[in-house]
Amino acid sequence: MLNWKPYADLIIHNAIIYTADLSLAEICSGNYNFPVIEHGFAAAKDGRTIAVGSGDWRIYAGSDTKIIDAKGLPLLPGLIDCHIHDMEFGLEQMGMDFSRCLSLEEMQKTITQYVKTASPGSWLKGSGWNECLWDSNRPPCCKDLDKFAPKNPLYCQHISHHICVTNSLGLRLAKITKDTPDPEGGSIGHFDNGEPNGLFYDRAAIALLEHVMPETCEEEHIKALETSGAILNRFGITQVMNSMMTCDEMRAYLQARKQNRLSYRANLMFSLDRSLGDVHVQAERIKQMTAVTGFGDDMVKMAGIKIILDGVMSAGTAALREEYEHISGRGSTSYSSHDLKLLAQLAGKYHWQVGIHCCGDRSADMAMDMFEQTCHPQNRHFIIHLTLAHPDQISRLKASDISLALQPAINTELGEQAVIGQKYSNLYMPLQTLFREGIIVGGSSDAPVVTCSPFAGMASAVERRLSDGSIHRPNERISIRQALLMWTRGSAYLCHTENTCGKIAAGALADYIIIDTPLLNTSADEIRHTRVLHTILGGKTVYQI
Ligand SMILES: [Zn+2]
Fold this sequence. Notes:
- By secondary structure, the protein is α/β, with parallel strands linked by helices.
- The chain contains 18 helices and 22 strands.
- The longest helix is centred in the middle third of the chain and has 17 residues, at 218-234.
- The protein is globular, with a radius of gyration of 23 Å.
- The two termini are 34 Å apart.
- The structure holds zinc ion.
- This is Amidohydrolase.
- It comes from Brotonthovivens ammoniilytica.
């Protein structure tokens, strides 16, 4: 090594270091008291931390060592979001944003703006509408949109990403008529007279639209990763688990990395998307995948297989044990128990980690049956969302070493009615119980569903404040130390990176953030508004104020 020097490339000193340096075994036995180093320093070389402490940092410094004075502010490990759609998030930043629309009229106005500069015939994509924020409280239909985009087909995703609406032109191009049958695992919305109303529920149905849209090219995908990377780094995120990846997207991650345009570590999950075929097609896909869990390196790595087993509470598509309170039915699952078991057996045979999207309690029952019957705990299977958790389910999670990827900010941001409803309120996200039972919980956002800010997630977990100002089940609040461990140790475990990430320790990768807020001694509100001043990935600055 021609340029090798015997001293650090980077030293950050004068910091209060929240090391998060605890083993998973310690956390599971109730120790959340990670070392905090006052007047500390961290030294990094070749992308790794070589020393952490409070002594004399100068002994690690050479003439060209980069030295950062943290000015007494907190230094944390780079944060890890273990369930995010970072590619989609980036692509959406490039389209119409309906998330701030407080009425249908505002959504229509946003479309009108975009149509002005769009070439006739091109698909206009947007996302983020949420009828729960509107007085009308009903989702838009094709007729609401037609006159605002007469020459452009529309693809407008609900904030949950489990509903999409198009205009009549979009319906025509996708050849959807009153006679089009619902695909398995999804449904098409209709007016009372049987004509399609432009709404599509769940992935399998939304795919009917996507099939007639032009494919996203590689450069667009790479741009999306750059765009989301800039935002993730701004919020202190240096690693994610992407939960719905296609082959095209996987190539884009590698290209982005090669071109130095990827500014965070990506763990990629293959999705067994019902829109691609039935259980036999999916089984074949598992057999033919050539990269398995763990394949890759520190920057881009295969994480596992994601199975979306049900929908979301707000759309009435999460699979529940009992009837919904506001609509009839109990929701449905995209695979039967039999099919799910078949997929899990194959996944187990080929050593895949499996993450299952379960918003309802019935789908979670099915996922646990499957994990118990067919899977090795060492594969680190996990449930994504687990919006509702009964005591009997918590016991099963513990007994079978099933972990969780949870998103505390969803409730706060979308409103509790949208997420849980009154009837199930007492079952919603019992965080303190989960910690007490020693279940490993990773922190995540599900962005672009809600903000990717881990500090918003931590504040929600610590506070549990509802939109009416009341505190939801105060006994289930967790401490900020526990919340930090979710976005560091818990998420790193799910990504199989706990030996190198999610902590500041000698030998670990040099992913750091400097923040402006002393998280350990402050209010939930201040936690929520924490600003990241500096984000470092593998010893290199990727964001700085
Ligand atoms: Zn998701």
